[in-house]
Write a structure and sequence with these properties.
The complex is a heterotrimer. Chain A is of the alpha/beta class. Chain A contains 14 helices and 14 strands. Chain C starts with a helix and ends with a helix. The chains are: A alpha/beta, B mainly alpha, C mainly alpha. Chains A and B meet through helix 1, strand 4 and helix 7 of A and helix 7, helix 8, helix 9, helix 10 and helix 12 of B.
Chain lengths: 338, 432, 417
């Protein structure tokens, strides 16, 4: 009997703390840590390293936001979420921000009640097959067994692709990337399909990556970006502009190497506004003037993060492609800081 | 005597013959084999089949066990060491066994769950073994608080502040005893709740800032492996016992409304799979609570598992109540005991004693069912195992991991089921 | 009357609601109802406010929207343009198919293991004990995952069947292919088959119906024949020879029908990436089926053993005294009595199997939990409605099974006099 009451009192205590919620920013600042939802483990995007420290491209966004808001890039609680639990975790307030390769779609933005703060990676769904099958195009996959991760847009795209091309296939739905990988390697499916970046990351973790090919077809648009709850515009702005600050920093040539020097003041007023030596952009966000400086200091600008986590020099080996700056033919285009 | 014989019959043996050996088919191994292995042709065929099956298993499994590799860093290394031969790669267990048992619990704090596990036996000893002194029951009552403190860490004062609520409740009950049942019961519930709600938190943090007694806090998401199975299983059973008693009484009640409420609850929970309740915990519980409420996933899981176990527990205890002879109820009535006194002093002690084997069996079932939490992203042993199987080092390992996990579960569950059988026998003799 | 008048006539006082046992139970019930309604109102209010905060409404309209995903095992016509409700029905059918298959095999294995554990044969009895104790003390999820892992990791891939020097080959005169994607068995086909009967969105195979009708009719006629023979035997003492008539009645019409319809088997054949033709039992189905069967069979074995042991030794001795052989003793004397002890716990095992089919998620079996409670919820964001609907369906199945089995149990019980 006593134990029951004890637990309910714990619950009451939890209720009491929960109900004192104000804006997300105040919550985060009061707590001193940012709760950031990430995937359960995709190499290069978000995965804990040998010491249990989360690393990766999506993780870097969390760290930049934590640095901007709290001043400490390490003050992040990473909450691993699956495709099924991520939106509930965000809606319920368990996490403040979801940085887990989540595709920006109409219904998620409008119907599910979330706000996408931008795109940090332009992706598309692709196929990986063992080289020995001799398949060179996705249109040759008639009758193939396809491993898919459930709870994503992937299975819908796949159904559309095969229907449009009038081909039949055999879907094998799987919960996590790890299991899908294992089934694919065991030959229980001919094809593994997910976002092209995820395929590259998965292939990089194989013992013999050369034995597998990623087919040229990209069957969908997958703009991936951080998501926040609908309704707290201030918090959405912080996420959006932290991401933009990283992108703008690359465009303006601000790197972690020259950050201190540039922060002292330059003759480019936009850099000055970005880094807080001119104007009061930080205050408008409800932060201090140096927020963007800290965000960039956390892991470098967008290009540096890309190069360090998934770029061509890493085992993942992704080219910039669509994710290059607009000045170099890509889609990364930060609105002006003014 | 021999003389008379000499006159009436021609020959009488006056010494006994030494007995002959029984026929070889009626002694020793042969007899045993005839009776137990080759009793009729059906039996003979079965024996041959069984021996063939065992032989087949040994021939195929022996090299696998005999060539076990214990020292390697990856499956590839294992295969190099085996050099083409079949063999188990137990190195995967050797490298990962601490994670399989404790999850991501900080390694320097492993002593806390281990100590608690040992103390758990002390706490349940007075319930299981009648010879243990009754005073240990006080320890059993304090154990849950100790467990929460040691597992999650943090300030001791928080736990003590919560505990103080019970003392306050008790004092209020004693103090208001003369003011009539309604007022007394009302105050006994209201005052501690108000205390917990408004005072306990500030009080604990206040004292802690003056005299800090703290152990390193550990977040719930670091829990994992077998530890989480044991935590959820034990918490579920401990919490469901009192609720189950109430529900069983409710189901037997004369009050129609109470009875129907209990029946509907029990049948609903028993009619849906546990996994839907777990998904309710992870997906829906937040809808049912006030906006902005948010608490720990493990706590939510424990709540749902408790509800689940409560329904089964209620049925077990109902069985115990039904097994009591009618005379016991009538005797209690004849003594003029009211309902609660009769339950507390006469009915429950006997009914619970009869139900202990059933309770242990419910616990075994619940303990096995804790593996389902893997579906809502809690890294129990199976979750850890699939994470290990996904790393490039151990891709393709499965038998070793599942044999290890299965063996640990088997030891726990088999041990408990043997104990419950032993208990059943002991209780049976008591009644004769 | 005199006694009545002696009792003091009390007027009703408010405190009697608490202290008078006549009224107290009503007070308590009203209080409990009040608390229950208060609690329910609190939950509903919270839910409404939470939904409002998320900008969602409570509606089941999503069930009529296009689902957009594919399901591999489809007992009904279904593709990605069908609705979510149809996906849910396909999932429900998959759940039921699995439950029925697992219940049947678990019962067979369980009864055999239970009887053999009581056998006089030492080695067989011990072997069964080992089986039972091993399987019931390890979580069912592990058995399911192990079966699935064995199927996908140690069976040959379809491409191993290809070419001159294929490393794998088909079993049983090239009719069954065991691959790491499932087992392919031949399927019955009809050359001159009858068309399908379409009832709304449901297609019924007239071939199967015709075959069933013929078989049932022949069995019925055969029973009449046997009953007639028994009557003749009772009257004259001589039993007429019926075995050849029985054989004719039982097999000729069915075979004639099959020939008329042009029955033949379609063998699985390796085409492209996979085998095609025949019936594919997917890995997920096999893993669930075997996992659930061997786990639950261990419990059923114990139930059967307990049931048999509950029948007193005197029954066996009496049957022996009547000259019945051990086999007939078991069939005619022991089992009918043991059944009464066995059936109630057997019902709860069937219920457990049905509920445990929801673990299909672990191996990607598309049951109700994976379609309605999984992908549909996830694509539409309707957790509340989806979970509620799914729980109600499971509850309905459970209540239905226990209802049917209790009815059967009562019928068995009635014979007890």
């Amino acid at each position: 009997m006593k134990k029951t009451v004890f637990l309910s009192s714990l619950a009451v205590a939890a209720l009491a703390t929960g109900m004192a919620s104000a804006t997300t920013l105040e919550d985060v600042q009061a707590r001193g840590t940012l709760n950031c939802g990430v995937s359960t483990g995709v190499n290069g995007f978000s995965a804990p390293d040998a010491n249990g420290v989360w690393q990766g491209f999506d993780v870097a966004v969390c760290r930049a936001v934590a640095a901007a808001v709290l001043g400490d890039p390490m003050a992040v609680n990473f909450v691993p979420t699956t495709g099924q639990t991520r939106f509930t975790a965000l809606a319920s307030g368990e996490i403040d921000m979801l940085a887990r390769n989540t595709t920006w779609t109409f219904s998620r933005d409008v119907d599910l009640g979330f706000t996408f703060v931008g795109v940090n990676y332009y992706d598309g769904q692709g196929f990986m097959v063992p080289r020995e099958l001799g398949v060179s195009s996705a249109t040759e996959l008639e009758g193939a067994t396809v491993c898919i991760q459930t709870g994503t847009t992937t299975e819908l795209n796949l159904a559309d692709f095969f229907r449009v091309n009038n081909m039949s296939y055999e879907p094998v739905p799987i919960e996590t990337n790890a299991e899908a990988q294992q089934q694919y390697l065991a030959g229980a499916c001919d094809v593994y399909t997910t976002d092209a970046s995820g395929l590259a990351a998965t292939r990089a973790s194989f013992e013999a990556p050369g034995d597998h090919v990623i087919l040229p077809e990209i069957i969908s648009k997958e703009p991936l970006g951080p998501v926040v709850r609908h309704g707290d515009d201030q918090w959405a702005d912080i996420g959006r502009w932290t991401l933009n600050a990283l992108i703008a920093a690359e465009e303006l040539g601000v790197t972690s190497a020259n950050l201190e020097q540039m922060a002292a003041g330059t003759n480019n007023p936009e850099i000055n506004r970005l880094l807080g030596s001119e104007g009061s952009l930080g205050e408008m966000l409800g932060l201090d003037a140096e927020w963007a400086r800290r965000a960039i200091a956390a892991g470098g600008n967008y290009g540096e993060i890309f190069a360090a986590t998934i770029g061509e020099s890493t085992p993942i080996g992704l080219a910039r492609g669509l994710n290059a700056q607009w000045t170099q033919g890509g889609l990364m285009y930060a609105p002006p800081f003014r | 005597m021999s003389d008379t014989h000499a006159q009436t019959v021609p020959y009488v043996r006056d010494t006994m013959l030494s007995p002959q050996d029984p026929p070889s088919s009626q002694v020793g191994v042969t007899k045993w084999m005839r009776e137990n292995l080759f009793d009729g042709w059906v039996s003979a065929v079965l024996t041959v089949l069984a021996v063939a099956a065992i032989g087949y298993a040994i021939v195929h499994l022996y090299p696998w066990f005999a060539n076990s590799v214990w020292n390697a860093d990856s499956l590839t290394q294992c295969r190099e060491i085996l050099d083409g031969a079949t063999g188990a790669c137990w190195a995967v267990i050797r490298v990962n066994w601490l994670q399989l048992i404790f999850g991501f619990y900080p390694p320097d704090l492993y002593w806390r769950p281990v100590l608690l596990f040992v103390l758990l036996f002390v706490a349940i000893a007075p319930i299981l073994f009648p010879s243990v002194p009754r005073k240990v029951l006080w320890f059993s009552a304090l154990y849950p608080f100790l467990a929460v403190w040691l597992l999650w860490g943090g300030s001791l004062w928080t736990i003590l502040a919560v505990l103080a609520g019970f003392v306050i409740g008790y004092l209020v009950m004693v103090g208001t005893h003369k003011m009539g049942a309604v007022v007394s019961v009302g105050l006994t519930i209201l005052v501690p709740v108000a205390y917990w709600y408004f005072l306990a938190g500030p009080l604990a943090s206040g004292i802690n800032s003056v005299v800090p007694i703290e152990v390193t806090p550990v977040a719930s998401r670091d829990f994992g492996g077998f530890m989480i199975s044991v935590v959820i299983g034990v918490a579920g059973i401990a919490l469901s016992l009192p609720l189950g008693i109430l529900l069983a009484l409710g189901r037997q009640s004369n009050m129609l409304l109470i009875k129907w409420m209990s029946v509907i609850f029990i049948e609903f929970v028993r009619g849906v799979p546990l996994i839907t309740l777990l998904f309710t915990a992870s997906l829906l519980l937040n809808y049912f609570l006030p906006p902005g409420t948010n608490f720990d996933l493990i706590l939510r899981v424990i709540i749902m598992v408790t509800l689940f176990a409560t329904a089964y527990m209620a049925e077990v205890i109902r069985g115990g109540l039904a097994a009591l002879p009618r005379g016991q109820y009538e005797a209690a009535d004849a003594l003029g005991l009211d309902y609660w006194k009769a339950q507390r002093l006469i009915i429950m002690p006997q009914a619970l004693k009869i139900s202990i084997p059933g309770i242990v069996n419910t616990f075994i079932g619940l303990f096995k069912d804790t593996t389902l939490v893997v579906f809502i992203g809690i890294l129990d042993p199976i979750g850890r195992a699939s994470a290990i199987r996904a790393t490039s080092d151990w891709q393709g390992v499965y038998w070793e991991l599942f044999i290890f996990i299965g063996a640990v579960f088997w030891i726990f569950c088999f041990g408990m089921s043997r104990y419950s059988m032993h208990l059943e026998r002991r209780l049976k003799t008591d009644h004769r | 009357m005199a006694i009545d008048s002696g009792a003091p006539k009390e007027s009703f006082r408010l405190s009697m609601l608490l202290y008078d046992t006549r009224y107290r139970s009503i007070t308590i019930q009203i209080f409990a109802l009040f608390m229950l309604m208060l609690g329910a109102a609190w939950l509903v209010d919270n839910t409404v406010r939470n939904l409002a905060a998320l900008g969602k409404d409570f509606s089941f309209d999503f069930l009529w929207n296009t689902s957009g995903y594919d399901i591999s095992q489809r007992p009904l016509e279904y593709d990605s343009t069908s609705t979510h409700s149809r996906a849910a029905i396909v999932g429900l059918l998959n759940t039921l198919i699995l439950a029925v298959m697992a219940c049947a095999t678990a019962t067979v294995i369980g009864v055999v293991a239970g009887v053999l554990r009581l056998s006089n044969n030492w080695i067989v009895a011990k072997l069964m004990t080992v089986y039972i104790e091993t399987f019931r003390n390890v979580p069912v999820l592990i058995w399911i995952i192990v079966t699935s892992a064995v199927m996908s990791e140690s069976m040959p891939a379809p491409r191993d069947f290809r070419g001159e020097d294929a490393t794998a080959s088909m079993q049983l005169f090239d009719s069954i292919a065991i691959t790491n994607r499932g087992v392919y068995v031949p399927s019955p086909l009809f050359e001159r088959g009858l068309p399908d009967l379409t009832l709304g969105s449901l297609a019924l195979s007239l071939n199967a119906i015709a075959f069933l009708v013929v078989v049932i009719a022949s069995i019925w006629i055969n029973r009449r024949l046997v009953a007639n023979a028994t009557r003749v035997q009772n009257e004259t003492g001589v039993r007429p020879r019926t075995w050849w008539k029985s054989l004719l009645i039982l097999f000729v019409p069915a075979i004639a029908l099959l020939v008329a319809l042009g029955f033949h088997l379609e063998y699985p054949e390796l085409r492209g990436f996979n085998f095609s033709g025949g019936i594919q039992m997917r890995n997920s189905l096999i893993a669930m089926w075997i996992g659930l069967s061997i786990y639950t069979a261990a419990f059923i074995a114990e139930i059967v053993r307990a049931g048999i042991m509950a029948i007193s030794k005197g029954q066996t001795e009496a049957a022996f005294a009547l000259g019945l052989q051990p086999g007939r003793t078991m069939r005619l004397v022991i089992l009918p009595q043991a059944l009464r002890v066995i059936v109630p716990p057997l019902i709860s095992q069937y219920l457990n199997i049905t509920k445990n089919t929801s673990l299909g998620l672990a191996v990607g079996y598309m049951d109700l939990r994976s379609t309605l409670g999984g992908i549909t919820i996830n694509q539409t964001g309707r957790e509340l409605e989806g979970m509620l609907l799914m729980m109600l369906i499971y509850l309905a199945i459970s209540l239905l099974i226990s209802g049917v089995m209790n009815y059967y149990n009562n019928r068995v019980k009635l014979k007890e006099r």
